[in-house]
Amino acid sequence: MKINFENAALDLVPSGKNYSVTMGERSSFVEITRSYNGKLDLLLDGQRVSAYVSSDGAKRWVTVNGRTMMLTKSSGIKRGGGKQHHTGELMAPMPGQVRAVNVSAGDAVTKGQTLLVVEAMKMEIRIQTPMDGIVVELMVKVGQTVEREQILAKVEVI
Q: Could you tell me if 135 and 155 are in contact, meaning their C-beta atoms sit under 8 angstroms apart?
């Protein structure tokens, strides 16, 4: 998962209950030891840290040692197998039901193209690709109920 942090990119890569966190040239390892009522007890490079988290959609406010930072999820672009190949995960912005799937795995898509339509609270939400690429995988089908931030499709950028 790629997160924007004070205009810098923060990459979180899950590994079991741990995460590898990279920001610029600096990498750290984070383990969530306890999570309850918006509080996370963490081991950050072996040091105990408490973080308080609140959220609104893709935005997260995280307070650590009295300092609050706003994190926002970006398009979910992760490094793939080759240097020029990236895979973007398209996620549901809110719970709803898939009303249309306009592409198939293997289809070429262009930036801004509507891949899926999700209905939530009587609104149609068009899930559009943020980049040109190839649909690698569709995780949903028409009529399926989805949760907020559930991965709907993956698009590979070449």
A: yes
Asked whether the CA dihedral 107, 85, 81, 59 is positive or negative, the reply is negative
Asked if residues 140 and 147 have their Cβ atoms less than 8 Å apart, the reply is: no
H/E stretch holding 45 reads: none
Please write the tens of the pLDDT for every residue from 12-47.
776 666 777 777 778 888 888 887 878 888 888 888
Query: pLDDT of 123-151, one tens digit each?
Result: 888 888 877 889 999 999 999 999 887 88
Record the pTM. Answer: 0.50
**Which amino acid appears at position 140 of this protein?**
V
CB neighbour burial string for 12-50, b if at least 16 within 10 angstroms, e if fewer: beeeeeebebeeeeeeeebeeeeeeeeebebeeeeeeee
Q: Which amino acid is at 59?
A: K
Q: Which domains does the chain have, with CATH numbers?
A: 2-73 (3.30.700.30), 78-157 (2.40.50.100)
